[in-house]
């Protein structure tokens, strides 16, 4: 597991005897293990450290989650894409300078849930209650979907739950390579493996511990070779001198390795962050230059690039994708109605998904 550096494993007493807990501990053999009554004991330990965020990524907590499935909150004032999330793991071993989890998770260790039977039951209920239309659901909101997969093999568990559930699209979103378990199972038509992409220079300076661009694209190519659909996320798009050429190279690199027919979707989202992230990220990443830009404070309180710049960035990327006949794969992430309108000319309003923009799927 590249990038995984676990100093200590903490086990919630209530799952101490669980079969999956034992399996995870076998996979983490050699690390000190402590049984605790709740996550608070781990958080207290982590908060004593001079860099609690960095420390939180090196402590793994095995527990049971009270519930897993919720609608993606998107951002107030923005047009949602009808996404749902499964909070199976929390936190991430990678360390991106722009990651909002630094501000959001507040000392939460890398957290792995072992009560998968409950997740299985929640999913059954979810499938029953949302019988029509297209529903997308993924594990990549509060974690990287594949960063811990060699340890947990959650991907295999989830793929089997989603197999033969037409209309329910599972997305596993990552900045890691391709875990071997994904090549041992048959792909399912409604499972999308997706990678967040940025130019290699950005990955090297801002996305510590993640797989390089080449490795992510090779992983996508191998996934397609095995029969999976793939997705890509340009999020956050960063604006800096030379950005256009850098992003153009990324788009060209995609289509050298991945055919357009295998791409389910590509999201675009420009850098945005809550005010609380700024002091934290500046302290943790003093060499980063991404916050040295003009931002506006939008209605929901986050800082963003000014709207004309965001619109221009999206238009430029749309042109790059149009060059490969893939502009219909694009949608915007956490953007305002005005920006969507400018991007599409009109807004598609489906029954469940206000902004699900893929005519080739509907
Ligand atoms: S890979 Fe995603 S979840 Fe992990 S640190 Fe980077 S932005 Fe955060």
From TrEMBL:
InterPro entries: SPL. Coiled coil: none annotated. The keyword Lyase applies. The keyword Lyase applies. GO terms for cellular component: endospore-forming forespore. It comes from the Bacteria. GO terms for molecular function: 4 iron, 4 sulfur cluster binding; DNA photolyase activity; S-adenosyl-L-methionine binding. Keywords: Lyase. This is Spore photoproduct lyase.
